[in-house]
Amino acid sequence: MNFEELLNYRRSVRRYSATPIDSEKVKQCLMQATLAPNSSNMQLWEFYHVTDPDKLKQLTAACLNQQAAATAQQIVVFVTRQDLYRKRAAKMSELETLNVQQNSPKEKQEKRMKRWKLYYGTVMPFLYSRFLGIFGFFRKIMVIIIGLFRPITYQVSENDMRVVVHKTCALAAQTFMLAMANQGYDTCPLEGFDSTKVKRILKLPLGAEINMVIPCGIRDEGGIWGNRMRIPFEEIYHPV
């Protein structure tokens, strides 16, 4: 399929056939999902690939017994991990240092490495840290003052940064679903689930959050609810 055919093929499938799907192919699609764009390359996500029958039953109950979950051959849970910001920032600082060493002119390497160490060693921990909204409040005050003199990003509260992490994870989820469509596999992004139960089933730490639960399989007859419907393009397209 070309890209347009791929987009048209991908649908939210609500019922799957009993035909098994290849776990290795699903894993490969998840590897492709890591190529999705993400804010500051922090990659504050984790993917839980569920194939165990007992876990699938538990997740079905946590997903309100929706048919998409109940008939899925496998389920992938996309999880945000803002609590890992220090670990991921340190890793990115290390990788960017290697990147500079391999790809930058010798005379520019020291300056560029210092820039990345500042960015991932100070800026990212400052932006992603949170404590009962207090850190975000101080960040907001700071950017409001700076914004009096030059353009600046104002979305720096703790809730703003949580939104950033979830947007990033959703980009990975969309990339995964397109990759699955390319394999001839079907998916359905679910937002109707008991996040507390899902976290308990997957034994996730307190700082993890569920971004999306995606049942996977091969579409069964009646698994797609009619034609795809979209708001008229003229209502959403605004040339400037």
Please explain how this structure is put together.
The protein has a single domain (1-225), classed as NADH Oxidase (3-Layer(aba) Sandwich). Helix 2 crosses helix 8, helix 3 (53-62) packs antiparallel against helix 9 (195-202) and helix 5 (85-103) packs antiparallel against helix 6. The two termini are 33 Å apart. It is 52% helix and 10% strand. It has helices spanning 3-9, 23-33, 53-62, 67-70, 85-103, 106-128, 134-146, 158-182, 195-202, 233-236; strands at residues 45-50, 74-80, 186-187, 209-217. It contains 10 helices and 4 strands; from the N terminus they run H-H-E-H-H-E-H-H-H-H-E-H-E-H. The chain is of the alpha+beta class. The model has no long low-confidence stretch (mean pLDDT 97).
Category by helix and strand content: alpha+beta
CATH class: Alpha Beta
Q: How many domain modules?
A: 1
Q: Strand tally, please?
A: 4
Query: In DSSP terms, counting alpha (H) and pi (I) runs of 4 or more, how many helices?
Result: 10
The rounded distance between the terminal residues' Cα atoms is 33 Å
Give the structure's gist in a few sentences.
It is built from ten helices and four strands.
SSE arrangement:
Elements: H1 3-9, H2 23-33, E1 45-50, H3 53-62, H4 67-70, E2 74-80, H5 85-103, H6 106-128, H7 134-146, H8 158-182, E3 186-187, H9 195-202, E4 209-217, H10 233-236
Helix pairs in contact: 2-8, 3-9, 5-6
List keywords for this structure.
NADH Oxidase; 4-stranded antiparallel β-sheet; alpha+beta; 240 residues
